[in-house]
Amino acid sequence: MTPVIIIRHPAYVFPSWLRAAASYGASVDSPKFKIPGSLRWQRFIYDFYRTYYDKIDDEEKKGLPIVIDGDDLVEDTQGQMKKFCGLVGLDESGIQYSWESAGRPTDNVSNAFIGNLKESTGVIKGLSFSRDPDLDEQVKKWTEEWDEETAGKLREAVLSSLPDYRYLRTRCL
Description:
Elements: E1 4-7, H1 10-21, H2 40-56, E2 66-69, H3 70-75, H4 77-88, H5 108-119, H6 135-145, H7 148-169
Helix pairs in contact: 1-5, 1-7, 2-7, 6-7
C-alpha cells in the first residue's frame, strides 16, 4: 500500500467548495464549513506514515507518503504521472489521459461537485492557478461574487489552513 495525498491551495479549495455546496444550501455559516478545505487531517496522515516509515527503517519507504499538488497535476499531467508511476512501480503506459464524456449528472448536487469531471474528455488545461495567490486579490473577487462577510469568512478559513498546506506543499513530488 502506498499512501497518496492530493492537496490544493486553500484559496482555491474553499470558494470552489462553497460554489458547489450552495447546491444543497450550505454556506460559510455551516459549523462544518472549514472541514472540506482543511488540510489538517491530511497532515496528520502524512506525519503518521512518515513517523511509521522512519521507525521501521525501510529504504523503500523513504519517499512515502506521496504528496501531489492538484494544480501541478493539471499543469504537468504527464510529468507528474511519470514521477508517480516511478515511485509506486506502475507501468506509465497504462495511464489514460483522455476519455469519453459521461455527460453531466442530472441532479443538482452531483452536477455541482462532479459535473465538469463527468463532462470532460481529459484533464482540463489552461486554468493556470498561481501557487501563492494574493489573498487580498482573492478577497476582492469573493466580495464581488458573494459579499464582504462571506469573503471575510473565506479569508479566515484560508488563513487557518495555510500552515498545513505549506507544510505539505514542501513535500510534493
